[in-house]
TrEMBL record:
One of its GO terms (biological process) is glucosylceramide biosynthetic process. It comes from the Eukaryota. GO terms for molecular function: ceramide glucosyltransferase activity. Its EC number is 2.4.1.80. It is a multi-pass membrane protein. It catalyses: UDP-alpha-D-xylose + an N-acylsphing-4-enine = a beta-D-xylosyl-(1<->1')-N-acylsphing-4-enine + UDP + H(+); N-(9Z-octadecenoyl)-sphing-4-enine + UDP-alpha-D-xylose = beta-D-xylosyl-(1<->1')-N-(9Z-octadecenoyl)-sphing-4-enine + UDP + H(+). It is an enzyme of class 2 (transferase). It is found in: Golgi apparatus membrane. Pathway: Lipid metabolism; sphingolipid metabolism; Sphingolipid metabolism. Belongs to the glycosyltransferase 2 family. This is ceramide glucosyltransferase.
Length: 395
């Protein structure tokens, strides 16, 4: 120990960074293996088809909403209900939901208008009436941008074993040809997938709730959904409270298919920045680590550390680092995507570069502007993740 402390600080820092990058390399490898082992497994028949209440909180209409909602009327599962939620009866999605409900009278569906103010999180408020009226033991919270495969509900219920109370689909995206959506798909299939897969494998709570199934009885043990109304990241705190009570979290084999029709590069950056602000507030201990695990920052510090310790040419080390990282990401993306990959290598490369290059900027932007603009409101969070100030309405 004393010989370590006698080293020059720059040598110590270089050693620490090499150890960190070694850990990160292990994370890449684990994610590759886990994606192959876990994702896209054939869906098996269940011994019991437990009923599921699907909560669909909606705000407004975007170009793919109708197609996305339509997939929920075609789910291949014997016992489910669809509970659509809107904040007010002037929401443009109301006529669309009514039209679909008339078109599919055999699907058990209801529309809840007006929400219930249990806290400051608008999504929770929006879902409350549907949650209270849900009749099945399993709740699926499914965001408006999600497209559902017919077999996906069976897949999720299959992972809801006796000890499990929360099953999430790993966030991913439906194939779309435009640049913005492809950028989003690359993020969710590489950087995000790596953390999400390894987090789940090692039992870290990292529940992102765009498509998450919860055992209602277990949520009631935590005080019910209304108890989470003061957190903006209700999805993460569902996981925290459930695991505190001894429940486990599971991961479905089929990733969630986000399919918004209005994603641009700018809207993607804004969303990534908003999520970073959430993590700053609720997980301050990962603030330091987060930028270091992004490709370009890691590449720069790694090559400087190697140069400092060994004198090796940093440009050659950088080139090797980048090629290895890129190959690992492309392979992970393929595994997360599953069969019939549509994105070619050149397009992947350009958008991957764009995503990685902008990652540090998004991080800095999130640090400098703590206000969180989300749909119709602007919020500030206290350390720990509670909403601190009453939301201001966006113009
Ligand atoms: C030796 C190497 C160590 C590396 C350590 C890495 C540390 C982690 C670094 C980066 C974290 C990246 C996080 C990726 C995903 C987070 C996505 C996210 O922020 N989602 C939030 C927003 O979700 C929406 O919120 C509004 C809601 O209405 C929507 O429905 C939601 O979709 C979400 O709220 C937060 C989720 C939890 C994030 C937890 C991240 C911590 C993960 C730590 C796992 C570490 C595993 C590796 C351990 C060695
Ligand atoms: O004021 C709001 C904001 C969002 N939502 C719902 O919350 C979900 C997630 O919203 P969004 O896609 O904007 O969140 P993100 O995934 O970008 O964090 C969607 O189903 C929205 O309809 C809501 O009901 N009220």
């Amino acid at each position: 120990m004393s010989s370590l402390l006698s080293l020059h600080p720059s040598t110590l820092l270089s050693i620490a960074f090499l150890l960190f990058t070694t850990g990160l390399a292990l994370l890449h490898i684990l994610a590759q293996f886990y994606a192959r082992y876990k994702l896209h497994k054939p869906i098996v028949k269940l011994s019991e088809y437990v009923g599921v209440s699907i909560l669909k909180p909606l705000v407004g209409v975007e170009p793919n909403l109708e197609n996305n909602l339509r997939t929920f009327f075609h789910i291949n599962y014997p016992k489910y209900e669809l509970l659509f939620c809107v904040h007010d009866d002037e929401d443009p999605s109301v006529p669309l939901v009514r039209k679909l409900m008339e078109e599919f009278p055999n699907v058990d569906a209801q529309l809840f208008i007006g929400g219930e103010e249990v806290g400051l999180n608008p999504k929770v408020n929006n879902m409350m009436p549907a949650y209270r009226n849900s009749k099945h033991p399993l709740i699926l919270i499914s965001d408006s941008v999600i497209r559902m495969r017919p077999e996906a509900l069976t897949d999720m219920v299959g992972w809801m074993t006796d000890k499990v109370a929360l099953v999430t689909q790993m966030p991913f995206c439906y194939d779309r040809d435009e640049w913005g959506p492809s950028l989003e798909q690359i993020y969710f299939g590489t950087s995000h997938a790596r953390i999400y897969l390894v987090g789940n494998l090692l039992n870290f709570v990292c529940s992102t709730g765009m498509s998450s199934m919860i055992r209602k009885k277990a949520l009631e043990e935590c005080g019910g959904m209304g108890k989470f109304g003061d957190f903006l990241a209700e999805d993460y705190f569902f996981g925290v409270e459930l695991t505190k009570r001894g429940w486990e979290c599971g991961l479905a084999a089929l990733p969630a298919l986000q399919n918004s029709g209005s994603v641009t590069s700018e809207s993607f950056d804004a969303r990534a920045s908003r999520w970073t602000k959430l993590r700053f507030a609720m997980l301050p201990h990962i603030i330091v680590v987060e930028p270091l695990q992004d490709c370009f920052v890691n590449c720069l510090l790694f090559s400087l550390s190697v140069w400092n310790l060994t004198g090796w040419n940093p440009f050659i080390v950088m080139a090797i680092h980048l090629i290895t990282w890129f190959s690992s990401d492309y392979s992970l993306f393929n595994n997360v995507h599953g069969k019939h990959m549509r994105m070619d290598l050149r397009r992947f490369f350009v958008l991957w570069l764009r995503r990685e290059f902008f990652a540090p900027r998004i991080y800095v932007d999130a640090m400098l502007k703590p206000d969180i603009c989300w749909r119709k409101g602007t919020y500030r969070l206290a350390w720990g993740g509670r909403i601190k100030t009453h939301p201001m309405k966006n113009e």
